[in-house]
Write a structure and sequence with these properties.
Keywords: Membrane, Transmembrane, Transmembrane helix. It holds the Pfam family YgaP-like_TM. The protein is an all-alpha fold. The chain has a domain of about 45 residues. About 70% of the residues lie in helices and about 0% in strands. It has 3 helices and no strands. Helix 1 runs antiparallel to helix 2. The radius of gyration is 14 Å and the shape is elongated. It starts with 8 loop residues before the first helix and ends in an 8-residue tail after the last helix. The mean pLDDT is about 95.
Length: about 70
Amino acid sequence: MGLDKNVGGIDRIGRALLAAVLTVVAVTALRKGKRSTGLVAGVAALGFGFNATVCFCGLNEALGIDTTSDE
């Protein structure tokens, strides 16, 4: 099973920005002692960062969505 690209264009930029924002949320929450919020935000940030980096999203694959033509 190969990871065919299915994330591109504005979708990719949006995922990268969301990953950055969620990273800030995670760090802030962890510094305030809110471990659950920090953990959830951190995991979400990693997921969106992965999607933006490798241009692949498993949910997009399952739903048949391809935004690479938006480039």
